[in-house]
Amino acid sequence: MLCYSLGGRTDDRVLKQLCDAKDTKGLLEEFCSQTGAETTRYQPFANLANHFLNSRKPSGLTFCRNDPKIIQGSVAERKPDVVLVSTESPHLEYGPELPKGPTVGFYWDHVHCSVEFKVKATELEKEAEAVTSASYSLSVPSHGYTGGTADLQMKSISNEDSRKRAAGSPPSGQPQAKKSDHRADHSEERRQSAFYALEMLSHGRYRSHVINITIQDTSMRLWFYDRVGVIMSAAFSILDLALFGRVMFAMGSLPPRGWGFHDFISYGSFTHVRPQPTGSRHSQRQTNKPALPPVFDHESKAPRATTSPEPFTGTVIRFHNGVVVTLKEIVYRQYALIGRGTCVIRGEVKGHSDLSGKDLMVKISWPSQWRTSEVDFLEAAHTYGLNQNDEHILGHIPQVLLHQDFYSTADGPRGKCGFENDDHRVLRVIVMDSYLPMTQLHTASEFTQVIVDVVKWFWLGHRALHEGPKILHRDISMNNIMFCRGRTTG
């Protein structure tokens, strides 16, 4: 089933040659021979994975140990054991032909995939003995393998916990039967992986989904997270080099969209080292410590250029009508793994004479595709206000300047894998005029004027929309009351 999310055709002849190669066996033995602390397996796994990942052609990506570095860009102090990052990342340090890890902490928008380990010492010794005596015979079919990683069965677990509770589990807060250590370990591993996906979707580049890896001893799972829920693969053994190799081959062939990055959003390259963000617990803890030394280019020995920690600054969104929107700083971004994932960013428009030079707001979100679009509501309200020549409506609702639906989860891996889910979501981008939140009111007179306008709107405009086009706003809150300085209509 993973052929849709990982993709790529596997040449079994090449795969068998690679699995039988002496250096491959050596890398596997090195991985399994680390029977001490869990951390001793991080880089050996990265070396084995990279051996397959880039064996056919350079993928532009590399696995490397991240622990104990904290990933930057969030106040949450999370440090995945191993991460998959771009080989262009200037935070990446290389040893003799192998990535050693970050010189300073990566940012979440550098991370394509995270790997979380959980190891039992008793199991490691058994695995090491098994690898030492293994013959490495591979069950690769002679007819040629064309299904990517279709061997791996996938299971949607979006509502698994609620189903289990409904099936008779005691509610939260009541005593429960003690679970086995293996189950507890798996739960912790699963939780950590979800946390990393949360950070990537909330603090990294805007993406539709995340693919992560969890490893317990030598048992490996793939996890797919999107705005609808979570899908997990069946567990498989890293000792099954044929299957492990297919997974790594597929990962190495994924285009940016396969990792969840959208082709209508153009990001800059990884040519900069960004300063550590201020305001986080991590940066505050480092306040009394000496500053990190500057990072130098390997060839010129000159410090690399730094830029803002904003992941969207300079990013470009291209609409189908040819209009180009350049993004600036983030105004609001929802911290969520599942749901709308709303992100509001300042922007400016190029290629549209009426909008060029205006201060605009760009809203990117994943609403349910079965719900009526807010664009439809706003346009219906605006049309009604024009027909009625009602300034109480026209002066109090934002006008949609640009909008487009770019992508649906039904068109991605979730839909193609055949998971029936009524909550498919659509990636929607809306461009509107820029307004200010009420927290930006500076004087009592400004505050009074805004409150008067709000009362007028609620009594006249809100009522008119309810009685006319049958629109009822059911979420009148502080976040939905904004103003434009210099205008008395709100």
TrEMBL record:
Which portions of the chain have biased composition (kind: Basic and acidic residues)? 178-189
Q: Which GO terms describe its molecular function?
A: protein kinase activity
Give the Fungal-type protein kinase domain ranges: 178-384, 423-484
**Ranges for region Disordered:** 158-189, 275-307
Q: One Pfam family, short name please?
A: Pkinase_fungal
Which superkingdom heads the taxonomic lineage of this protein's source?
Answer: Eukaryota
Where does the record place Polar residues bias? 277-289
Q: Per its record, how is this protein called by name?
A: Fungal-type protein kinase domain-containing protein
Q: Which organism is it from?
A: Hydnum rufescens UP504
